Amino acid sequence: MPLDLALHGRAPLTDAIPAQWRKPLLHLALGWAVLLVLLWPVLADMMRQFWNSSTYNHNLFVPVICGWLVWLRSPELLRITPQGWWPGLVLLAGALVLWLLGDVSGTAIITHFALVFAMQAMVLVTLGPRVVWALLFPLAYALFLVPVGDELVPTLQMITADLTIALTHWSGIPAVIDGVFIDTPAGLFEVAEACSGVKFLVAMAALGSLAAHVCFTSATRRAVFMVVALVLPILANGVRAWGTIYIAQSQGLEFAAGFDHVFYGWIFFALVMALLLACAWPFFDRPRDDAFIDGAAIQGRPGFALLDAFAAPSGRCLAAGALLAFAVFAWAVQARQVEAVVPERIDLPQVPGWQLAPMADGPWWEPRAAGADHRLLGSYVAPDGARVEVFYAFYRNQQDGREATAFGEGALMPDTGWSWLQAAPSLAGGRGEWMLTSVTVRRLAMTFYRHRDMTTPSAPRIKLGNMADRLSGDAHPTMMLILSSQAGGPVDPETAIIRFAAATGGLPAWMDRIGQVR
């Protein structure tokens, strides 16, 4: 009797799921559990960004939205018979290898995408191609879980600055623009990273994709809606920045800053979203009772019948997928042990025609290299007064938390008196950028990376080199060199940096000598 009661108590839950779905769903849950346990640091890093970064707060709702999209399809979805599918293991292996590459190179965005790809591939492995086809949009929408967008900040800053200065001149306010700084009679305004509009653009991309799918059936209407959804936040952000400047001319900087934070930060963009949806409303063409998919048609489609030749019990596919995950994870553990030899001490050497000197008076400048094993910062002065500051960082390897090319590392340390002004032409093969302090002191910085025999300003090339090291077990250090010069001296920054680079006898060999690589 107790057993009968227990079974009777579970019946309503199990009866709600057709028999052919029960084991495959259990196997999918187990597969996801294996992936999340093995790749837990990746998920934890994503969750930290969702919770701590306002740019990605909306990502917290993506799993709920994906679940809702699946629920909308559930009546028709249950008419499909799920089955394991061996070829899905190829995609799962690809996702796991992608994670491996991101893990050994310390590239968080790659590991984030790889985790989502692996979760998607596990659906194909355990439930088969028919179910994946039926859930194509919910699975694709899961890509919005990846916290991506900060890479657009410099570009969006410049676009916003250009829009703002155009509107400022149009409204009759005299203004001068210098990079992302706009000088007006009311004061100097900076189109900072927080003002780039990336938060609104990323959120609008997620909202626009959802609305385009749920509200439209016409591909043309969807495309037009998405173009508007992506362009509108960029234009609106330019209007927001101009509005702050316009209000400051009559009400003062303090009032404008408060108004910007309250109205533009919380109300303005909500109104823009509402306006977009209101304007699109008359063109919605999806019937309210639309089922999104036709389960019977998908189940009987001839093309899927051909794929049934590769079907297999979902339990076996799960076991093979789990073995793949454990194998790649073990490879990653081994690859993480690969490290180059670190010298006990390094020093900045003498450079012909230049003398090491104390750092110049004025705003303090020091780049960021949080995970480096060695860091050097010094100043060189030539007889004619030319001055170049040199920053050198040495890394035994590249991994999460100690990447030379990570966001926020390099010439511009976040939360300091220095602000990014604009990109600068390359000198001596480096990546150039102008920086500015609140007291309008300008500084030019050129960044170089070196790994093996490669010297480059390219972060992706450095990451690829480190991937090869880790996977092959052959360790080589990574070095970062930043040459910088402050404007206003007897020699302009560009000339000073070019002369100094030439005096070293060649920056690649000079960087190697400092790090005692050769």
From TrEMBL:
It is a multi-pass membrane protein. GO terms for cellular component: plasma membrane. It is found in: Cell membrane. It comes from the Bacteria. Its EC number is 3.4.22.-. Residues 321-504 form the Methanolan biosynthesis EpsI domain. GO terms for biological process: proteolysis. It is an enzyme of class 3 (hydrolase). GO terms for molecular function: peptidase activity. Signal peptide: none annotated. Coiled coil: none annotated. Keywords: Cell membrane, Hydrolase, Membrane, Protease, Transmembrane, Transmembrane helix. The chain crosses the membrane at residues 25-43, 55-72, 84-102, 108-125, 132-149, 223-243, 263-284. Its main location: membrane. This is Exosortase A. It comes from Alteraurantiacibacter buctensis.
